[in-house]
């Protein structure tokens, strides 16, 4: 695991899990391991962001969050990265466009919890995300119904990959998305921060 730009070969499927990771926790580890299994991915990269435009409170310093992420996520097929800081991108759509240009032939899959699918339509240029990379959605407690009824889920309903075929998502032509129910760890960074204060 290293920061910066990890290696990836043409034809590989790489899952991207973005977020502030403030702090990283076992829930992040759990969905990462489930994504590797469920979506037929060769690797997963954590994109530890400089900041989240949708959150009012700024995160802990990036080097601190990177160090904590590396301490908790130890797997040979997972890389912890500060790619967005290096690229100078803030919006996910811009990050994906830059990565696709930098890694021609790599099949990227955007990973998110069901809570993020429920609000995806609020993200900047969110349709560019859905139209250019497959999206793997992992259910979290309490977010299944709102995610499945979300504007993004309704608009892209004809491009949904059935859960039984989730292992093919890494090879799917976008737009494509898959929603899988997995045993979840019911913990969030917000809860952990509240416990630290």
Task: Report the uncertain regions.
Answer: none
CATH class: Alpha Beta
Extended strand count: 7
Mean pLDDT: 89
CATH topology group: Rossmann fold
What is the global morphology? Answer: globular
Tell me the helix content. Answer: 25-40%
Q: Care to describe what's here?
A:
The chain is α/β, with parallel strands linked by helices and 197 residues long. It has one domain: Rossmann fold (3-Layer(aba) Sandwich). 36% of the residues lie in helices and 17% in strands. A seven-stranded parallel beta sheet has the order 3-2-1-4-5-7-6, with helices on both faces. Helix 1 links the parallel strand 1 and strand 2. Helix 4 packs parallel to helix 6. The longest helix has 13 residues. The protein is globular. The relative contact order is 0.19.
List the helices and strands and how they pair.
Elements (H helix, E strand, L loop, with lengths): L12 E7 L6 H13 L4 E6 L13 H11 L5 E4 L1 H5 L4 H11 L4 E7 H6 L6 H7 L2 E4 L5 H5 L2 H5 L4 E2 L15 E4 L8 H8 L1
Parallel strand pairs: 1-2, 1-4, 2-3, 4-5, 5-7, 6-7
